Amino acid sequence: MIDIDKVRADFPILKETINGKPLVYFDNAATSQKPQVVIDSIVNYYSTINSNIHRGVHTLSQKATDAYEEARIKIQKHFNAKNSYEIILTAGTTHSINIVATGFTSLLNKGDEIIVSALEHHSNIVPWQMLCERTGAILKVIPMNLDGELVMSEYDNLLSNKTKLVFVNHVSNALGTINPIEEIIEKAHKVGAAVLIDGAQSCPHLKPDVQALDVDFYVASAHKLCGPTGVGMLYGKEAWLNKLPPYQGGGEMIKQVTFEKTTYADLPHKFEAGTPNICGGIAFGTALDYMNSIGFDNIAAYEHELLEYATKKLLEIEDLKIYGTSKNKTAVISFNIGNIHPYDIGSIIDKLGIAVRTGHHCAQPIMDFYKIPGTVRASFSFYNTFEEIDIFISALKKAKMMLR
Ligand SMILES: *Cc1c(COP(=O)(O)O)cnc(C)c1O
């Protein structure tokens, strides 16, 4: 059970007013709000232990290093990785994907195939197109159906011994669809392909177990699960991380440097060149602690109730169409009302204090599939309420009258 008043008291921003109205924050799929413990963790870091890590012999540096490595272990435990050095701390999902995509340049040959899905975020399309340009590999796409689900029979047809990599998001950010990644991973492994799962949109709602999934790479951003921006993680199986070359050269990622030859540091440091986002990494660990204290089962159950309630209320509005109607989805609702441009709806309800996203949600291929320029997207979190949904619905009705 979620004690909603207690939870909301943890998030100082929820007391803000926007344009004179109480904030209704329904843009959680873009970034989540931060609880006080995460904000405190950032302030405490800079107030008490700020120092560079891994290099200093002095006490402060040791304290910062310990706190940073403790965060890595929290992340390892959260995702159930076998070893802490299989967790690479990155700048976020985009950075994590690029580490893998760049690393595969030396592992692919002309004519090899990479499979992505029609439901991808741009950050999960463009790096693979660039990889194909560098290597002559071919990009194949698992198509989607009108409910916003992947057509799995087509996936079977795309797989062959030419398939080297499969990249799919766990949950679509534009539609909320939860993809059948267990099946995707198992089938890819049968043809010897590696699988990367983009967990940016799933991790705020569920707790993936990378060993149970037997996934090769799993990536996420802290800022979508109550942590700060500019930090995220790349989980990779040890054998894969050893196979991939480093992404960036610099300090901290080397064993020995001479002008003739440099040898790389062991995992995870091989992929962590330069001074990292130390405070961000520590606060990422705090954010996971916070979410685990609420409990992912509680979060999923409560958000599902919000989703059902909002879906029912929205469908009572005439001419409103929801995109993404899979039974298996997180609390994301993408919709349009008649021919009204999503931007116009977004601007009017913003005047009423309500934050939603409008546009293509970095997933233009999905919009092209539905032949629409974009949608209004409301995405809920465990700190949202049924009352906020009521405010949202009456604001939409008002906007609809004004724009008709
Ligand atoms: C947000 C998001 C990304 C990009 O994450 P960044 O934190 O901006 O790097 C990638 N994939 C999906 C599905 C997302 O929702």
Describe, in plain words, how this protein is organized in 3D.
The chain has 404 residues and is α/β, with parallel strands linked by helices. The chain folds into 2 domains: 4-26 and 295-403, Alpha-Beta Complex (Aspartate Aminotransferase, domain 1), CATH 3.90.1150; 39-292, Type I PLP-dependent aspartate aminotransferase-like (Major domain) (Aspartate Aminotransferase, domain 2). Helix content is 40%, strand content 17%. It has 14 helices and 17 strands. The protein has helices at 4-9, 36-49, 59-79, 93-103, 126-135, 152-158, 181-190, 210-213, 238-243, 278-294, 296-315, 342-351, 364-370, 386-403; strands spanning 17-18, 21-22, 24-25, 87-90, 113-117, 138-142, 163-169, 194-198, 217-221, 232-236, 254-257, 262-264, 320-323, 332-337, 354-355, 357-359, 375-379. A hairpin with a 2-residue loop joins strand 1 and strand 2. Helix 4 packs parallel to helix 5 (126-135), helix 11 (296-315) runs parallel beside helix 14 (386-403) and helix 12 (342-351) crosses helix 14 (386-403). The longest helix has 21 residues, at 59-79. The radius of gyration is 22 Å and the shape is globular.
Q: What topology does this entry show?
A:
Elements: H1 4-9, E1 17-18, E2 21-22, E3 24-25, H2 36-49, H3 59-79, E4 87-90, H4 93-103, E5 113-117, H5 126-135, E6 138-142, H6 152-158, E7 163-169, H7 181-190, E8 194-198, H8 210-213, E9 217-221, E10 232-236, H9 238-243, E11 254-257, E12 262-264, H10 278-294, H11 296-315, E13 320-323, E14 332-337, H12 342-351, E15 354-355, E16 357-359, H13 364-370, E17 375-379, H14 386-403
Parallel strand pairs: 3-15, 5-6, 5-7, 7-8, 8-9
Antiparallel strand pairs: 1-2, 4-10, 9-10, 11-12, 13-14, 14-17, 16-17
Helix pairs in contact: 2-10, 3-10, 4-5, 11-14, 12-14
This protein binds pyridoxal-5'-phosphate (PLP).
